[in-house]
Amino acid sequence: MSDHELDNIVKKVRKEKKAFSNKAALDTSNPPLEIVSRTDEIKEIVDYIMDYEQGQVVPLVSIYGRSGTGKSTLLKHVCNHLPKVKLCFVNLRKAKTVFGGVNIILNELGQQSLTSAQGMNVAMEKIQETLLNMMDLQKKKLFILALDEFDVLFYDKRGNPSDFVYKLVELIADLKQKGCLAMIFTISNNVLSDYDLDERIRSRIGNSEIFFKPYSKDEMLMILQQRAKVAFDKKINDEILEECAKISFLEHGDARRAVDLLRVSAEIAAKEKKELAVGHVKVALQKIQKDRVEEVIESLSQHSKLICLVMAAKTFFHDKDWHTTMSLYEKYKEYLDAEPVSYRRFSELLKDLENTGLLTSKTSSKGQRGYSSEFQLVMDPQIVGDIIDKDWWNKHVVEPKIALDRLNDAGIKKNSLLTGLTDWNMPYLS
Q1: Which residues form the Cdc6 C-terminal domain (predicted)?
Q2: Can you give the pTM of this predicted structure?
């Protein structure tokens, strides 16, 4: 590529960037300019923290609620406002195991990782020693360990997450005996008591919980108006912001994704050299969904990918949203070329996929047969199929579905239709 061609690309990109006056205002990793509609939650956080002035704090507080409801942002905001409080904020998303989570904590405290052979007790001693030195040096009154994405640790079935929580609570008690007040905030989508914890933990942590309700559509709109005012030179049409708020409220209630939707919409409009319009929001939504699904699916095991593919195919082919665990498991076994996982492990994988946000579940009554879990794919099945295996998806799902619909349109009865298609490779008819 010549210098002239490169200069033209730079000029083109620079021109596109002029659609924004301050694009950083639409970066969801940056703190918000102003906290919107979270007064009650802030007061609850402050109530728990300020107990340190009386020399007593609860060892662990569980902050929970859907993604994008401001949990992490507000805790940071409160702690950074209090000069006597030392916050160590740890994101456990990258932790593959419980011990991996311990090393992330050590790293955030400025210490090197330990090997698993050194053991959990050595790790806890190292954390305690580091905290005592830090608090003495910085003259703080309260240490707060915030564990974001806390539910990730419970994916590690061998690492005994319950015992890890117990050791953390014991650590807080030991620190208090040594004259150092400390507390833990766990941040996740579910309340801590929903996880598999033994009774010695439950009796120690009590019911110290703070629930963050999803943002309403009006609150979403307020957040978008606040960000848009700083991000753009021109006033953005309220109809566009209302569309972003409505979509985000109905789909997920996630303020971060609402801001992302506005940003991507503006980027698409800039590339087209057009004024930002509602139509760009629709295009941006499809792009974000596809990008997000790709990111999540890339991290999945082959078994989990196949589960998603089976789920997408059954949803697409039958125009049916909800599927029982058993129906999914039978199809998974039928189209797996390797040894299948057990039914119990399959159920665990479905729950793990639900935690990633790809699936949602409900419990339905089967009368005398009791209750069963049913799962629904949250994303467009076409997007999932294209990402995992586009060629397979088109050959075994899309093309047979088109053929089936044509015969159906011709008025052929269902039984005759199925008989007439026995030679087709149509794995999701049953």
Answers
A1: 309-388
A2: 0.70
